[in-house]
Structures
1.
Amino acid sequence: MKPSEARPGEPVTVAAPDADCNPRYGANARIQISVADSSGAKVVNTTSAMNDGGGFSYTFVVPARTVSGQATVTAVPYNLDWCDDTGRNNRVAGAAVVQLQRASCVLPTKPLTIGR
C-alpha cells in the first residue's frame, strides 16, 4: 500500500501481485477493499477487479470524513472462501487432486496513518 500515511483528499493505492499458488479465481474475480478509520467507521467499502492469479491494484481518495489516527485497510477476494483452512480446494470444482498449502484465516490488514 502506498503511501502508508495520507490526509483526506489524498490518493492511496492498495495492490498485490499474483499469488504463487495459482488460486484460479476466474476471469470475473473481484477484490473487496475496506478501510476503517481510527473510530472504527468504514470510510471505504468497495470491490474492484482482481485477476485470475489474485493480483490487483486499486486507488481510492481518502474521504473528508475520515477521522485522523490509525486506520485499517483490508483486501480479500470478494464472494469467495478466501481462507483455505479445510485442506481441500473449494474454488475449483472437478479439478485434479493437487497438494494444497493451507492458509491462515486471520483477516489480512495493513495500517494506514491518517493525518490532518
Note: The two ends are 19 Å apart (CA to CA).
2.
Amino acid sequence: MPMPVAHHATRSVALSALLALCAGMAQAQDATVLQTENVRYDYAQVLRVTPVYQTLRATRVEQRCEPAKADSRIGRVVGAVKGALSRDEVEAQNGCRPVPVEREFRRPIAYDVDYVYKGARYRSRLAEDPGNRLRIRIGITPAVPGVRTR
C-alpha cells in the first residue's frame, strides 16, 4: 500500500536532518581547537653584552708630498726633472703625488646579549644594547596531546 505524500515528505526531512547531524559530528571530530596564548612581560638581568661588528673598507686618493729639501742646486735639478716627467709641474716641483689610501672602519650592527631569567640563562642577538635589564615577553600555552598550535 503506497504511503501518503505528506508522510513521505516528513520522512525525507527527518532523514536529511539526520544526515546533516552526522556530517556535523564528523566535522567536529576533525576540528582543531586553538588555545589562546597567555602573555605577560617581565625583566631579565643582563649578564653580558658583546657588540657584533661589520668591517667596511674604503679607498680614497690623497696627495702625498715629499718633505721640502733645502734649497740646493741638486734639489732644483731633481724638481725640474720630476716636472718634466710629470703631468703637473707644480705638484712635481712640490714633490707631491696622488696615492691611494685604504681605510678600514668597524661599526656595531648588532649585540649578542647574555641574560638570566628565573635561574635560566639565555642568549639573543638584538639590534640595540639593552643596558642592565632586558624586557622579555613570556607566553604560556598548555601543551595538550593531539592538539596542534600555531
Note: The beta strands are 38-65, 96-117, 120-126, 133-140.
3.
Amino acid sequence: MAEPFILGALERGRSVEQFLGPAGSPERLGIHWVELQPVRGTYEVYLHAALDCEPLSGDLDSLPPLFDSDEEDFGLLLATTNDPLAALDAAETQTGAVRNRWVNQSMAGDEYRDYVVASRPAKAPDGHPWPTSQP
C-alpha cells in the first residue's frame, strides 16, 4: 500500500499489517508480523509471533503462539502514539518493516500462504532479506 492509503486506513479505524517472514529457531519454526492498530484516538504497534505449522491457514490470528503464554491474545506492544505516521515509523524502526510492504488487515495471511507455497524462501518477494526482529 502507498503511504496515503496506509494513513487513510488507520485514520478510518482500520488496522494495517505486514508479514515479516520467519521467526523462532530451527527447533521451533515460526513466523512473525507487525500490526498497526487504531485504538481510541491512538495508534498501537504490535509484533506478533506464531508457529509455522500445518494445516496451512491464511488467518494468522488462528495460529498458535510461537512462545508459551497464558494469555489468550498474543502480541507484544511495541509503541503507542497519537499520530499514525509516528506509529508507522515506530513499527518500521523497531521491526524492520518496509514502507511499501504494508497491507490491509487480514491480508498478511495471504502473504504467509504465498511464503509457504514458495517453500519458505530466505528472501522476501522484493528480493530483500526478511527482517530479523523478534519478540
Note: Residues 40 and 105 are 18 Å apart (CA to CA).
4.
Amino acid sequence: MPSKYDTGETMCPYRLVLEHVTSRWGVLVLIELMERPHRFSELRRAIGRVSEKMLTQTLQTLERDGIVHRDAKPVIPPRVDYSLTDLGREAAVQVRALALWTEKRMGDVEKARQGYDEARS
C-alpha cells in the first residue's frame, strides 16, 4: 500500500501547494501580507535579501495557487499591489502559527542540537 506521502500522480498537487506555501520566500510573503497589501518594492524591502527574480516567481506561484491577489492599477506610473485572498489568509494563519512556535521553541531546538552534536563527537 503506498504511503500518503507518495510522490505518485494523486499526491503531487498537494505536495506542490505545501512546497509553495512553506518555501523559504513563500512563508515570508504570507506573513508579511497578513498585515496589509504591499507593492512589489515594499514587499521586497520588508522581506530582505530576496532577489527580484525569486520574489517575482514566488508571487506568481502563489497567485496561480489562488493564495495571492495581484491588483494592477491602470495608472502612470504603473502600480501593482499584492494582497492575500481568503485562501491565502487561511494559509498565512497556519504558517504564522508554525513560525511563532519555532521562535518560542528555538531554545529547546538549540539544546537538542547541542546534545546531538556532543553525542556524535
Note: The mean pLDDT is 93.
